C-alpha cells in the first residue's frame, strides 16, 4: 500500500475511484496543493487506485483554525478493508508534523452511517455544532456535521 500526493497525470486514476470527480475540481485541488494550501493524497495498493482525500491546511468556514479532510472517498468494492483508516492516519500524521493540535472532517449525520461509525471509532467527535448544507450534489443538499479529533 502506498500513499502519495496526487499528480496531474493521476486524473484517470482519480476518476476510477470516484466517477463523478470532474477535471475542474482536480485542477483546483492540484493548484491549492501547488500553492502549499492543501495536500491531495491518493492511496494505491499494487498500483491499483483505491482511495483519495483532500487535506486542506486552512480548514473550512466553520473551523478555519485546524486542517480539514474533505471528500475522503474509497472505491465501493474496497470499502471496509482499512484503506480509509490508513488515509486518515496519514492525514493526522502530516497535520501533527506541521504542529497542528486538531484535525477535522464533516460527515452526514444520517445517510452515511458506516463512515460516521468509522470516524467515531478513530476518535472523532461531533463538535456540538448544528448540521449545515456542505454542498449540493445533483440538486440534492448534503447536510453534514463537523467532527474533530485532538492530535
From TrEMBL:
Q: Which SUPFAM superfamilies match?
A: Acyl-CoA N-acyltransferases (Nat)
> What superkingdom heads the lineage?
Bacteria
Single GO MF annotation: acyltransferase activity, transferring groups other than amino-acyl groups
Ranges for domain N-acetyltransferase: 1-151
Identify the InterPro entries for this entry. Answer: Acyl_CoA_acyltransferase (IPR016181), GNAT_dom (IPR000182), YpeA/RimI_acetyltransf (IPR050680)
What keywords tag this UniProt record? Answer: Acyltransferase, Transferase
Q: Please identify the protein, giving its name as recorded.
A: N-acetyltransferase domain-containing protein
Amino acid at each position: 500500500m502506498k500513499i502519495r500526493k496526487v499528480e496531474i497525470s493521476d486524473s484517470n486514476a482519480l476518476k476510477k475511484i470516484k466517477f463523478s470527480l470532474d477535471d475542474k475540481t482536480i485542477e483546483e485541488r492540484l493548484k491549492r496543493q501547488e500553492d502549499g494550501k492543501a495536500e491531495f493524497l491518493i492511496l494505491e495498493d499494487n498500483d491499483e487506485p483505491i482511495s483519495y482525500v483532500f487535506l486542506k491546511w486552512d480548514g473550512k468556514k466553520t473551523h478555519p483554525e485546524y486542517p480539514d479532510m474533505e471528500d475522503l472517498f474509497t472505491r465501493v468494492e474496497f470499502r471496509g478493508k482499512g484503506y480509509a483508516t490508513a488515509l486518515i492516519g496519514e492525514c493526522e500524521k502530516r497535520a501533527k508534523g506541521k504542529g497542528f493540535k486538531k484535525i477535522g472532517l464533516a460527515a452526514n449525520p444520517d445517510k452515511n452511517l458506516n463512515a460516521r461509525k468509522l470516524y467515531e471509532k478513530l476518535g472523532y467527535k461531533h463538535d456540538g455544532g448544528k448540521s449545515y448544507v456542505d454542498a449540493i450534489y445533483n440538486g440534492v443538499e448534503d447536510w453534514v456535521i463537523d467532527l474533530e479529533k485532538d492530535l
